Amino acid sequence: MDKVTPKYLKKKKKEGEKVVLLTAYDFTTAKIEDEAGIDVILVGDSYGTAVLGYSSTLEVTMQDMIPIVGAVRRGAKRAMVIADMPYMSYQTSMENAVLNAGTFMKMGVDAIKLEGGLVVKETVTRLVDIGIPVMGHIGMTPQSYKIFGGYCVRGKTKSDLARLIEDAKILEESGAFSIIVECVLEEATKRITEKVNIPIYGIGAGRHCDGQILVISDIIGISPGPSPRFVKEYLNLQTRIMDAVTKYKEEVENGSYPNSAHTYHT
């Protein structure tokens, strides 16, 4: 299969073919996803809540992201690897945005992702101008969840929908090659996709998207706490891990592990 690029994604949109995106935070998972044919692997700042135990993605730093970006990049060959720009890695100044995005690009990622529309217009334009592909992110943007009073569905009012459409247009005009739309009414997402020509990928945004993205921890059932409504759990790995750990504990305590099959002999 062809290596996934922005051009490839636009071709898929034009042909009406859905794109599959998924997060990954380590080499092994990235390798599995790549071999399974996942098109885009996002090294998401969701790593903070899914793996590190942070209360929100606001706590994630560049130092947290760098090791996992490298691991995922080494695990994926065909898939497009996109690195999430963590909170305050691009908002403080244009210089910091360029340096931090450049750090990820030097590690071999194919693009970076940042949140916002109008507020990041100049940043997106600058990054694209210096050769850094940018994926946008609008709707319920986790790095801004405190402004919304928590995690909530967007696009419920005419003014909110108008703002979302305007942000999508701004991102397209600034050079973003695609946009993730998160937690938006399905009808609102349909309107957004009709107003821009670049691919729109949804997470909790309904069926009128050019593809879907979910968090790997959610679909395999190892996320802490309750999952959002839009999550579909394809495997309850937490239960299987608990069963394996419990059985191991029992066998060590009763002496049945290790047995002769798991012991070296002369």
Number of continuous helical runs: 10
- The assigned CATH architecture of the largest domain is Alpha-Beta Barrel
User: Total number of β-strand segments?
Assistant: 8
Termini distance?
49 Å
Q: Please tell me the total number of domains.
A: 2
Shape: globular
Mean of pLDDT? 96
SSE sequence, one letter per element: HEHEHHEHEHEHEHEEHH
Main β-sheet, spatial strand arrangement: 1-2-3-4-5-6-7-8
β-strand percent reads 5-15%
Oligomer: single chain
Briefly, what CATH class of the largest domain?
Alpha Beta
The fold-level CATH name of the largest domain is TIM Barrel
Structural class: alpha/beta
Q: Mind telling me the C-alpha Rg? A: 20 Å
Structure write-up:
This protein is α/β, with parallel strands linked by helices. The protein folds into two domains: 6-235, TIM Barrel, CATH 3.20.20; 236-266, no CATH class. Helices cover 41% and strands 14% of the residues. It contains ten helices and eight strands. The protein has helices spanning 6-14, 27-36, 47-50, 62-75, 94-106, 121-129, 158-174, 186-195, 216-219, 237-254, and strands at residues 19-23, 40-43, 80-84, 111-113, 134-139, 178-182, 200-203, 211-214. Strands 1-2-3-4-5-6-7-8 form an eight-stranded parallel beta barrel, surrounded by seven helices. It is globular.
SSE layout and pairings?
Blueprint: H1 6-14, E1 19-23, H2 27-36, E2 40-43, H3 47-50, H4 62-75, E3 80-84, H5 94-106, E4 111-113, H6 121-129, E5 134-139, H7 158-174, E6 178-182, H8 186-195, E7 200-203, E8 211-214, H9 216-219, H10 237-254
Parallel strand pairs: 1-2, 1-8, 2-3, 3-4, 4-5, 5-6, 6-7, 7-8
Helix pairs in contact: 2-4, 5-6, 7-8
